Amino acid sequence: MRILLVEDTHDVGEAISRRFGAVGHAVDWATDGEEAAAILEFTRFDLVILDVMLPGLDGFEILRRIRLAGNAVPVLILTARSEIDDRVDALDLGADDYLVKPFDFRELEARARVLMRRATVGEATNVIACGDVLLDRTNRSVRVGKREIQLKRREITLLEILASRPGRIFGKDELLDRLFGFDEAPGINAVELYIGRLRQKLEGARAKIVTVRGVGYRLSPDGED
Hints:
- The protein has 8 helices and 12 strands.
- It has 225 residues and is of the alpha/beta class.
- Helix 3 (59-68) links the parallel strand 3 and strand 4.
């Protein structure tokens, strides 16, 4: 999904961005607290990964502003401060999870999957099912019935967005916003291109991508228009 990473340590931020980007998530990386607060005022994210010690505004102040604005985006706090009082403060301010540095990137990825899973599908599993299409978030694999299909990372992300809300119509602008970060420059027909590719690879599946003319796209579990 679309992730805002707020981390001022360059090697840590670069590693996190690379790992999440490699599996198809769009990652916007801010290194300053003021910059992050400004971005959050006008951009919707599916997850915020937030360091505490930042120039400008610290992570706790950013978190406080997020919740005061009524923004329910999942927030995962990263910090080198392991004292119990800091953890309690973060959770009381509205953090959804807390990870102490240094951490294993596999644990960060697993915790992020849990938070995004709660927010998008409300299930206790990493597998999203829509009709006969199964998407495993853990290993980024997709099956149609018993047949595994090969999707590229952004095609998997598009399927994940559509399958997380079967029947919901996603507008082109929303899909564009969730598939690409600030530093990417997708073409005007990028959404149609990826929808077309995904449709071809899902050919034969009971679940179908339906075009709602003039509005957007939705995934129908039973292929109904």
